[in-house]
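call fold(seq) -> C-alpha cells
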Amino acid sequence: MNALTNEGEALVLNLFRGVDIPAGTKVELVAYTAVSTDDDGVSQSVEVSDTGYSRKAVTFNDPEAGTAGRRKCVSNVDVEFGPFDTTGGQITSYGIAVDDVVVIRGLATTPKDIVKGGVIKVKAGELYPSLRGASDSFLDAVLNYVCKGHAVTAPESVHAGLFSDAGELADPGCSRLPVVFNAPQPDQDSSALTISNQQGGSWVATEDWPLVNRGKLFDQAGNELAVLVFPVEMNLTNYAAGDELILAAGLIVIKVG
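ret:
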C-alpha cells in the first residue's frame, strides 16, 4: 500500500506551501475489486458494492524504518469485511480513508474471493503503507496522518541549501534561500501531482565551488525536510568566485510517494 491518491498528494505537497493538515476523526480501511491504473484518486476505482460490505476502522503502530529508505506503519488489528450477501469478484486492493477521503492505496498481497455468507479477514501486520522522498521526521508526520488521523503542522517557511558530497557549501554566498511553491499541478510524465518553486533570490560564489550535485530543503528552524537530486545538467562543475546561480522558477520540483 504505497501510492498516495491525488487527494493525499495534495495534502502533503501543500505542507510545503504552509497549509496545515487538520486532524481526522476516523481512519477506515477501504476494499476495492478494481483500481484505476492512474493516480487520479478514487474516481475510476471500484469499491466493493456488496450490501454486506462496509468500510472498517483500522489502527496502526507508530512509523518505523522500511526498505529502500522508506518509512512505514504496520497495522496492529485484524479487520473483517462481510459476511457478504452475494458471490462474485475479488478484493484486489485496499485504501485508507481519513474522514471518508481515501489518501493512500495499494494492491492486496493476495486477492481474496467474495463468497456469499463468507468474510474476508485482513490480518494484523498485513497492511504496511510506506512513503519515501523526504526526511524521516517529515514522512513520519505524514504517516501519522494517513494511518492515525493526526494533525500535521506545516513549516512556517521553507529554505533551500546547496550541497556537495562533502556537505553543505560553507561559502558565505551560499546561505539558504527562502523558497515559495506554486499550487500542486499534474506531473507531465504521470498523473501524479507535483509542486515547483517560484523564482526568488540567487546564490553568488565568493570562492570556487566543489561539485554541487544536490540540495536540501529545511524549515524555519533548520530541520531537514527533503533532499533534492539535481539533474546532470544542473551539476555545478565550473562555478568560481563571482559566479551567480539564480533560483529560477521551476528549478525545484517535488513529488511524493
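The chain is about 10% helix and 35% strand.
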